[in-house]
Amino acid sequence: MNIFRLTGDLSHLAAIIILLLKIWKTRSCAGISGKSQLLFALVFTTRYLDLFTSFISLYNTSMKLIYVACSYATVYLIYMKFKATYDGNHDTFRVEFLVVPVGGLSFLVNHDFSPLEILWTFSIYLESVAILPQLFMISKTGEAETITTHYLFFLGLYRALYLINWIWRYYFEGFFDLIAVVAGVVQTILYCDFFYLYVTKVLKGKKLSLPA
Amino acid sequence: HHLVNTKDEL
């Protein structure tokens, strides 16, 4: 465990908590893509099946359980408790265009052709693109609430910190996982445009709105 | 081989 990995995990946790609190406090999930949140719940479910087969550390197990629980809670708030505030009309990204190719790819390119390994690979690939429905929704409405941009910032920061973590581990532990690294690079790139807007607008106190 | 799975990561 190095400092980049730890702050990456904490940044990921911060993103998840920010989103939950935003929905809970405002009693509204306006501007949030339920489809992205469903995809993240699917990502955590398929990745953390090893909770049943192997124990790594108390930290590892508790963080996995927290991520899974929070992602299901978020989906519950969006599709059940605050369903009336869910902006389904703007959440129109076709998720089958992500899930089907990612499913196919995880069968073709994986470390080992076994059920758990294929599901783990599926979750890695799916996570890299799961934010697309949310970004699509923002591009469609042309704006995002500031709290939503904080959520996206911490979510992108998490993956960027993981990239530094992998460089660190490559040099100091000889550790390298091509699947995770390529997916992580793709995922981080998807946030670059958003990072630019976040720094140039949101951090200067302006609302994130896109030119018409 | 040098490929190691990142199973200890989240």
Detailed description of the structure:
The complex is a heterodimer of chains A (212) and B (10). In chain A, 71% of the residues lie in helices and 2% in strands. Chain A contains eight helices and two strands. The longest helix of chain A has 28 residues, at 146-173. Chain A is globular. Chain B is largely without helices or strands and 10 residues long. Chain B has no helix or strand. The model of chain B has no long low-confidence stretch (mean pLDDT 68). At the A-B interface, helix 1 and helix 3 of A face loops of B.
Estimated structural class of chain B: little secondary structure
Number of beta strands of chain A:
2
Q: What is the general shape of chain A?
A: globular
Q: Could you say which structural class the secondary elements and strand pairing of chain A correspond to? A: mainly alpha
Family (chain A): Belongs to the ERD2 family.
Organism (chain A): Chelydra serpentina (Snapping turtle)
Keywords (chain A): Cytoplasmic vesicle, Endoplasmic reticulum, ER-Golgi transport, Membrane, Protein transport, Receptor, Transmembrane, Transmembrane helix, Transport
Subcellular location (chain A): Cytoplasmic vesicle, COPI-coated vesicle membrane; Endoplasmic reticulum membrane; Golgi apparatus membrane
